[in-house]
Amino acid sequence: MDFSTLIGLIGGAACIVMSILTSGGSIGNMIDIPSVFMTIGGSFAAIMISAPLKKSLGIFKIMGRCFRVPDFGEKNIVVNMQALSEKARREGILALEDGLDDLEDPFMKMGLRLVVDGTDGNIIRSVMENELNQCEARHMEWISIMNGWAGYAPGFGMMGTVLGLIGMLQNLEDKSSLGPNMAVALITTLYGSMLANWIIGPMASKLLLHNQTEIRSKEMVIEGVLAIQAGENPRIMAQKLLTYLDPVTRKAIEADVLKD
User: Fold this and answer.
1) Do the Cβ atoms of 160 and 33 come closer than 8 Å?
2) Which three-class secondary structure state does DSSP give residue 244?
3) What is the pTM of this model?
4) Roughly how many angstroms between the first and final C-alpha of the chain, as a whole number?
């Protein structure tokens, strides 16, 4: 569970509620069902126009990933790659074939399979980088849909406000209702802004962070696979892979990986 997402949603809701109460308002006055339909329903309808049905309906599953902490096993990549490199230097490249089926990472398995098959290094890099690029393209497609939703929500909020103002102006003879009607009209803009800046936009940013982390881990795998194919010293290869890690993680495993 990614508690930062949960804390952000709960904390944001608490701040909004406290802001309403401390300014003399009430929660009941801020609830308007037509505004919910306009902002959430309307902006999601726009998403269905801009994206295929499968993508539109699948966006909620993708949003659920913001509540999980992904583990792409960067530390295990360094350890496994060094062990495989040492095995290849001791027993030869073909010796790696015995343990390929035990590898959990399909990307690493694919790269090492190419190495065992005697594939040229440039071809291995081309194949693996193409796989990486396609993976990132799929991620960015989902993130683009999320950013689109965040962009549509304020617009629908403004449309709701305009509709409310039109209704208010059509009843100007009832001056006592002008203030309440104006307040209700502005609630739609509030909902649109909340949806974009509190929920959808931040979730898109978190998914982008997950994408960057996964791409970095796959770049580590490519570096390791090519090092094994070139017959590099396992210690030098490990040092290369360690540069991809943050300082804290690097320090935690550096002593074991680079031990004499």
Assistant:
1) no
2) coil
3) 0.87
4) 38
